[in-house]
Design goal:
alpha+beta, Nucleoside Triphosphate Pyrophosphohydrolase, 2 helices, about 15% helix, globular
Amino acid sequence: MAAERVPVDVAVGVLIDAEGRFLLTSRPEGKIYAGFWEFPGGKVEPNETVEQALRRELFEELGIEIGASEPWKIELMDYPHARVRLHFRKVRGWSGEFEMREQQAMAWQQLPVTVTPVLPGTVPVLAWFAEERGFSGATHGL
């Protein structure tokens, strides 16, 4: 029997602007799934809360300071390289100018999203948005 993989905790920011659009960023070159679109965030370090990790990661990746973040959903994803526990937090306020510090791309999106390909861990979030917003049909392209 294979050993159970211990999940890596990841803080994920679901930034929502005043128009209800949400921010997706591309995974940078050199990272697994490079070029796939996802919600920004990163690993929770030891002795860090999910909110602290999200605050740190969004500053490191995007150059913004976030306001309060609201816990939303937790999703366990099994990727070939790792098992991750994604802690999604909604963020409606931030300050600073967006800087793509990892040479990633960013795109404000509505349903259905127009950027492709979408990271598998992002797909459930799009379904949650569809449910919240009464959207029916495909949430993303392939």
